[in-house]
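Section handout, structural biology tutorial.
Before the tutorial, make sure you can parse a SMILES string by hand: atoms, branches in parentheses, ring closures as digits. In the record below the ligand is pyridoxal-5'-phosphate, and the chain has 448 residues. In the tutorial you will relate the predicted structure tokens back to the input. Do not try to memorize them.
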Amino acid sequence: MSDDDAASSAGPPVRRVSDWEAGALHEIAAEHGTPLYVQDLDRVRENCERLRNAFPDADVRYAVKAHTGRSVLETVREAGLDAECASAGEVDRALAAGFDGERLHYTAVNPPARDLDYVVGITAAEPAVTVTVGAVDTLDRLAERGYDGRICLRVNPGVGAGHHEKVRTGAAAKFGVPYDRAAEVARSAADRFNLVGIHAHAGSGIDPDQLDSHRELVTRMGELARELVEPRAETGSAGGDARPLDLDYVDVGGGFGVPYEEDAPPLDLHAVADATREAVGPLPAGVDLAIEPGRYVVADAGVLLARVNTVKPTPDGTVVGVDAGMTDLLRPAMYDAYHPIRNLGGAAGATAPDERPATPVTVAGPICETGDTLCKNRSLADPIRGDFLAVGITGAYGYEMANQYNSRPRPAEVTLDDGMATIARRRETLTDLTTVERTENDSTGESR
Ligand SMILES: Cc1ncc(COP(=O)(O)O)c(C=O)c1O
Ligand SMILES: N[C@@H](CCCC[NH3+])C(=O)O
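Predicted structure of the complex:
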């Protein structure tokens, strides 16, 4: 089946910023103010369905870090996906959104003691939360806490991919046990814990031209799974240990890219799925394929609405000041990431944006940093003070990376469900900025 066929049941392969209904966004912005994230749960559902169509035989785990909002987690759970969590906080959110422990995978990267204590603690009540471990020290720290639950071994496959060097994890030494030690560490882990799987993740934002790296990673993981489950004596790990292990899955990570540029082609998910199955090769009986996409599920389900407050001609071109900046959407400042921007109009008495000339502009936020721009020298329908701008493809790693730098309260978020807008996360207030600070009457600061 091609992506076009799948589209009939799960919508088009990507939703562009031009596909959003301007009138509806105007109404939402007028009611809730800006900056404001809007997340469409119907689109999240479509994306889940598209993934399940493309990978019907795989366990699909949503990488919660992309968007942790409760209604998004509930939507993903109802769509039948499991959850991959990066911290105790994400596990807690997923449980609160109704995921059963057995549908949760906690990927522990240099985990703080507090996170391990939490997960070991809840495992008494939620026996099947799986902890994915990428270092022998982490195994030891779990054993010290009496953990005897499900373990997955994170492997560093030595091959990475992704939209920016800062998000290529597959070859970064921080992540996982080096590939050539993985079999030995897996066998010793199986002596102490219930080892159920192996895992690797190439990185985030894998575009069509990086599929070779994904393929290489998957090939290595398929080979490792066979070596562990169906060892031949001569392929035993160091010391000649060739005991067969009993694994449930090989998780080849997430990272499926979405097109941010207006003219970039969408990933052909069915081609990715075919390449994945071919690269992993024949898996031993009882071993399933697992994937853990985040961005693909939520990115094009979201837009960020901002309002133009300043239009300034300068010798370097027109600078359009808006009320959303790098504290609301960090990706352009952090990765030079491109997000499409559409002028929705709305300035009092002004003509509709499609009747205005296109002008090259830099869109800058309210933060006291030169890098606080959402785009540079981009052609937009001539912005006028009072217009609303829609910044597209912000549903993944948008609100999640928002912060309070410059003492700016985080923005609000509205979800759309069957077109109905509901406030999902209220706008922070100035009071929220200081709620964790010690006061004169509070000697420890810990009770608040
Ligand atoms: C371990 C792990 N799994 C899954 C993901 C999801 O990546 P993406 O949102 O690009 O699909 C990430 C993020 O890079 C990750 O670190
Ligand atoms: N935060 C990154 C993705 C990193 C995913 C975590 N490993 C982004 O916005 O593209």
